[in-house]
Amino acid sequence: MSKNSTKAYQFTIQNNEVVGVFELKNGRVKAEKMEADELWSFDATTNQVTKTENSHGRLETTVYSDTDGDGLFSKMGVSLGGGLSTTSQALTQVHEGYKFDVVNQVITAVYEVKRGVVRQERQDDNDIFTLQGADIVKTASEHGVMETTVYSDTNADGIYTKSATTYSTQSGILSSAYHGDERDDRWSGTQSDDYYYGALGNDILNGGNGDDELLGAEGSDQLLGGGGDDILSGGDGDDLFIGGSGFDKLTGGAGSDKFKFNNIAEIGLTSTTSDVIADFTLGDKIDLSAIDAKLTTRVNDAFTFIGTSANLATTGGNGVLWFENNVLFGSNDNDLAAEFQIQLSGVMALSPSDIIL
User: Fold this and answer.
1) Domain that holds residue 278
2) Using the 8-state DSSP alphabet, how is residue 164 labeled?
3) Staple 357 to which of 97, 163, 178, 302, CB 3.0 to 4.6 Å?
4) How many domains does the chain have?
5) Cα–Cα distance between 232 and 277 in angstroms, integer?
6) Which pLDDT tens digit goes with each residue over 136-172?
7) pTM score, two decimals?
8) 322 and 303 in contact (C-beta within 8 Å)?
9) Are 236 and 255 in contact (CB under 8 A)?
10) Looking at the structure, do residues 350 and 231 belong to the same domain, yes or no?
11) Within-domain flag for 86
12) Does residue 87 sit within a domain?
């Protein structure tokens, strides 16, 4: 087709895939939108581009040809098929998936196929791709959790889909695991061991039962361990931690975080059962306001912080807190023994302003 023609088309083609469409009209070039229901293909032997789409319940096929090799394509014809068939539905489905460049059994490049467009994906340093039989497997480690994703080409068309994803720690495979995005995620766990990664947004992550690992990452998140021995990490933002029952490890990260305890039973009393706050710093708060400091009264009393255990002889043990050897102790009866303790790793001193009494 002559360059002097009033209307023509140009295409951006990478690895024999059409990734961009442009219309040339009256000397002006305009990018065309590639719709989700369009499948574009390029035949290098005939120098033709074919677009297939579902139009009003019928399969519409448009052929573009560059007859003189000048890079400008003209529309050669449009054909309409009958009602939707298995073939047309399959063409729509291949818009989503992945392609891989493999050289000497090594994965050298990864591409995402989305809405008929092929784009190369960035491979992070901790991403490892391997060939395992007919499948391609990616492993990546993040925050101590290994993510394994299997890609399968079930219909042998060169486009792979994710067929399985598992997450594991040193203790074994986690039964359910989820990664968030930039939105505010809301997740509730199962009876088993769960892994939740909130990523961006202000997330609410509830582990449920089981020994769970909840990572808030960015944003001001709410992390609720539930039952089991849980690991909760806030990351950035002002996060709320409620460990629940079990031996929990809580790491606030950046921001002014709050560690809330609702009853004595969920805190523990020994070094192997009591919860651990790994990085308590200035601006963080330990919230004990839901716990009745004095069982001998009918109202919900607040605790009194007395410094160290040396002051127990003067104050008595009813409704008091004291801190020594990196541990916050609490008593809510008349004897001088503690009913609960919270371990504060690396903390040498504590004041009443650090605690919501």
Assistant:
1) 181-354
2) E
3) 302
4) 3
5) 10
6) 999 987 666 677 889 998 888 888 988 877 777 655 5
7) 0.58
8) no
9) yes
10) yes
11) no
12) no
Residues 136/130, Cβ–Cβ less than 8 Å = yes
Q: What is the pLDDT of residues 262-298, one digit of tens each?
A: 999 999 999 999 999 999 999 999 999 999 999 989 9
Residues 195, 285 within the same domain: yes
Q: Is 92 helix (H, G, I), strand (E, B) or coil?
A: helix
What does the alpha-carbon distance between residue 213 and residue 207 come to, in Å, rounded to a whole number? Answer: 7
In a domain, 90, yes or no: no
Long-range contacts: 301-308, Cβ < 8 Å, 24+?
302/357, 303/330, 303/332, 303/355, 303/357, 304/357, 305/350, 305/351, 305/352, 305/355, 305/357
Helix (H) and strand (E) counts in the chain = 2, 32
Secondary structure of residue 139 in the 3-state scheme: strand
Position 64: which residue type? Answer: Y
Asked if 42 and 126 sit in the same domain, the reply is: no
Average pLDDT for residues 171-185, to the nearest whole number? 62
Q: Say if 294 falls within a structural domain.
A: yes
Question: For strand 176-179 and strand 172-174, is the pairing parallel, antiparallel, or unpaired?
Answer: unpaired
Res 93 pLDDT > 80: no
pLDDT at position 260 is: 98
